[in-house]
Amino acid sequence: MEMNEILFSKNESGIAEITFNRPQAFNALTWNMEKSLTEYIEECSNDDNVRTVIITGAGKHFCAGGDIKAFKKRIDNHEALPDNGIVYVAKAARAIRMCNKPVIAKVNGSAVGAGSAIAFACDFRVLEKKSKLGAGFVNMGFSGDTNGWYNLSRMIGMARTTEFYMLGETISADEAFTLGIANRVAEDGCLDDVTYELAYKLANSPTKAISYQKKMFNIIAYPDMELLEELERNYMPACSMTKDHAEAVNAFLEKREPKFTGK
To answer: What's the Cα-to-Cα distance from 79 to each of 3, 211, 233, 252, 254, rounded to whole Å?
Structure first.
């Protein structure tokens, strides 16, 4: 892993912060970032001194999801998307859901594809007015991973989730709040203040009771995560070998509209 692709810190109040740190690539994920995210979340889950976790991105954006330049290299080499990355990012999303501590996504700028799905895995999402959430996957010719639609559907139902994912939509912070995705929307420039106000409230709550709440939520409302991960692991590599995926990546890099053929 490149040095400091993920930053990790804890303060005296028991608030841990995990920061994606590839701002030059809009915090697009690498495999090692995905594995490190899982490790940090599991560390926080087992650390009695951590009472709340914040996930955010360095620079202007939360996370752009997959690295499109890496997709291009694989396409040019006629290689299928290995399932390793699908497994790693799914494990990260599951670790967030299973974490014994409340997890807050502090969404600065845009969260797209796997980036938005990581936010959906969290217990709380705090956006600022200029923040945006994007489905991303279908625009790249992908079916999707990171348990994204599964976690989103628990918040807003299948009808709106289907619309968001199949149409490859991007929604504003205000739309996200209206739909019930965003828990807080801060004025631009106030994201840290609003996020930390929520984090301190949670950190000063009976976190053992919250951990039992999460266990109940996960058992009843999230019973099929492992089955979904198996489906994602099969379908994403299959999508990566389609002509539509190659067209999506090339069109993005060439700054033009893609022409999909369904092949």
So the answer is: 27, 42, 16, 19, 21
Q: Say which residues have a Cβ less than 8 Å from residue 58's Cβ, sequence separation at least 6.
A: 7, 19, 20, 21, 22, 23, 27
> Quick count: other Cβ atoms within 10 Å of Cβ 60?
12
Residue 155: pLDDT above 60? Answer: yes
Distance of alpha carbon 196 from alpha carbon 199, whole angstroms: 5
What structural domains does the chain harbor?
6-188+209-219 (3.90.226.10)
Helix (H, G, I), strand (E, B) or coil at 241: coil
Confidence tier at 85 by pLDDT (50, 70, 90)? confident
* Averaged pLDDT of the chain: 96
In the chain, at which residue ranges do the beta strands (DSSP E only) sit?
6-10, 15-20, 52-57, 103-107, 110-112, 124-128, 132-134, 170-172, 184-186
